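In response to a reviewer's request, we include the raw inputs and outputs for one of the modeled complexes. The two entities were modeled together in a single run.
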Amino acid sequence: MDMSQESNQDRAPLYETMLSHRFQRRSSFHVPGHKNGKGVDAAATEYFASIMSLDFTELAPLDDLHHPTGVILEAQSLAADCFSAEETFFLVNGSTVGNLAMIMSVCAKEEILIVQRNAHKSVIHGLMLAGAKAVFLPPRVDAATGLSTGVSLTDVIRALEDHPTAKGVLLTNPNYYGMGIELSDIAEAVHLRGIPLLVDEAHGAHFGFHPDLPKSALASGADAVVQSTHKMLTAMTMGAMLHVQGNRVDRHLIQQRLGMLQSSSPSYPLMASLDLSRRWIYQRGKESITKALQVVQHFRERVKSKLAAAAIMEKEEHNLSYTFLDPFKITLHDRTGTWSGFQLRDQLALAGCDAEMADAKYVLFQFSLASDEADAEHLFLALSDIFMKLSLKKQDFLEEITNNNRMQLFTQISAPILMALPKKSDASKVKAIPLEASIGFRSAEMVIPYPPGIPLLYIGEQITEQTAAYIKWVAKQGAWFQGAKDAGLTHISIFIE
Amino acid sequence: MDMSQESNQDRAPLYETMLSHRFQRRSSFHVPGHKNGKGVDAAATEYFASIMSLDFTELAPLDDLHHPTGVILEAQSLAADCFSAEETFFLVNGSTVGNLAMIMSVCAKEEILIVQRNAHKSVIHGLMLAGAKAVFLPPRVDAATGLSTGVSLTDVIRALEDHPTAKGVLLTNPNYYGMGIELSDIAEAVHLRGIPLLVDEAHGAHFGFHPDLPKSALASGADAVVQSTHKMLTAMTMGAMLHVQGNRVDRHLIQQRLGMLQSSSPSYPLMASLDLSRRWIYQRGKESITKALQVVQHFRERVKSKLAAAAIMEKEEHNLSYTFLDPFKITLHDRTGTWSGFQLRDQLALAGCDAEMADAKYVLFQFSLASDEADAEHLFLALSDIFMKLSLKKQDFLEEITNNNRMQLFTQISAPILMALPKKSDASKVKAIPLEASIGFRSAEMVIPYPPGIPLLYIGEQITEQTAAYIKWVAKQGAWFQGAKDAGLTHISIFIE
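The model returned the following structure tokens for the whole complex.
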């Protein structure tokens, strides 16, 4: 590795080396079997041939993700420099694998990790793989919307005091809706105990690259941070990064965990797209973001001035349940209560506009630095059409939605709970019973309504009346339950004891 | 899912749906952030723009890998039908994740799995993640080449008898060099115990699709089989499949494990490439293989008749250490002993021909059904040039290589060994010492010379004199040690006890 090149952010060392390798018109007597794209289906040539000509494997000039010493190390170092980390690991298995590896490098069996409850399921899976004990922190709740946001500093400090043997604290920031909290105070409190703050910043890869965007978790002092480069920046789907700083996490162990959990034949196009995304955000980040933020702002203003029935979530200054709202996330609902978020999403899809997610009340739109005026115009027109219909057939279930709003399921810091791998199916111990009859039993499945993909029950957790009621409610709103045996969750698998 | 379409192998349901979605010119307000490729770096447009226009996420018409009910389920069903499985899981994290999920669905903590020792490191990692106990089976050794091949039926039966509580048997077939064994008898012996035979068939995705190719593991009765569709067929790198038949493995648990270990945002281009590969092998498999086998055969004959110093490995009929040799794998060495496999590989690379791997003696070329005459000609000419030089500067280290040959490290069935996750670094317990001084200590790192990627030491295994000597020898031959702290392995990390 040529260290003098390390801070040359105008280079894309991995991608450039792949291109130069490609132009040598080499003959392949190695995997992959498609032989630089020759084996691509004729009908798919237009889409796959060019990328497959770069679909390489670990030949000497192309380095090795699991033991990088050349162009991949160089690309990762440039990324670390660009994102203000000390070291960056490229991920080809999504933020999922970043969360797994981060947790498994910090927690051994039966050790305690303090974890924000409204986490992505990969956090729960990481705890299970580690066999760790979780102390769950309740999220704060935004009174205006009923949405779960971040944790409170008070709760973090209390949990640290109650569990002095905890190995770290893991937070999810921002949440799916772009609502986030200031992390600096929490980082300081965690560091006072000599343990690391881990942050799942899957939705914040763009943070810190523009004065109008929130501060990144790394800038707030987090020790290890996972970012979905594909979500808010421009990498291909599954491309993500794990950033590290300081010495509270063991980088060698992180590399070891990633070596277990990621393919031994990682995709070069995916890795190159990380290299290119890093260069893009460095070279054009500020300019693109400025432009895209104008698009979003313009859209927001037009909705506000023209579509009286459409309400866009805004952060009120006096609202202390969260600190910032990512301007690229637009959360919208029907003020009249005629349409649920699910219904709005479905109508927009018919008009060619695909939203990020919907819940009972809201529909969430994700903009990014690649969003343009044409897209925003498309969405505005589609919304106008939908809300134009509204005045003609206004219905009256506003109250129902308002009353039910979002229940608060988790309000207390939990006791330490041992997270174990789901066991081999054992028909004599597991039984599917109607949800209403399940109260008091321990769940034999993880219950994750999608969206927003937050685990309501993990395997082994006792089903309370409140949980069952909540599940019934979100199911009625049209949520579906990823991985559940009964996708609509009228029945739930429990352990007979 | 339209079941009447299920066996229409001329369709590629996932890819077709992606294309039709693409042509709707929809506006994206969801991840990924590149917005159908608009966010791609200008310099990379030619390679990335077309594929990124298909880089979707889990929108309703596009189904969900982790809970398939639509086009992904349909594509997987067609694959199951094509590969003669009962059920097929698409993998976007390589055969690696297939091996992990397969093992973790069969073995719980401290349960026994009977495992062929010369396995890919992902098998060792799967055992560690499961916390299982491994009973290692020694591979047979091909006397002619010194290469490790498959296990013997006798050893499998003895291990089953000695360990009646074993939960399954996992074999790797064929090995990296394409040498494989007949599995039917072994499958039968394993099934007599009521437990599953699991097969890592990473290098055999093409098996069974042509009369001149070996029988597939599924056809031999294996219960779960992992195949790297990208290695010997035409998928993009990281695209693989896990096939299942019968009821000795728990498919629900496999899906659960895959849901933990694979990205919650799996790559659609990768999944589409699996769909397209399946269609290709079904539609054109026999024809392409016939053609490519002629290319290989022609190459083989020319080397034999024109390059006296180049020896290509062939399976002798009386050789009982393995049953078949994949004709697409060409293993070649320098008869005069002038050049090691590493040296041959490096000279060929200078001539633009990239081999699959090299070891001290051999260089391995992987052909596939996408290999053509032009590639074969390129390789033949490059080899001719290299061997032409040979007569001018023949040297005399033939004997050294012959005498050292490949040592036999593993000859006995091991006792059950608990495979645990490498622990958090603990400087007071781990120390790097010179390899020669390490005998008798337990290794604190996994030692995997690459090539061929077979673990010589796992974490916690005692270092014997023989192992140390073997490591020293392969290191001297230029092997490098993936993931080792000292890449040349003159030092090794051990536990001080």
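As requested, we also summarize the result in words. The two ends of chain A are 59 Å apart (CA to CA). DSSP finds 14 helices and 21 strands in chain A.
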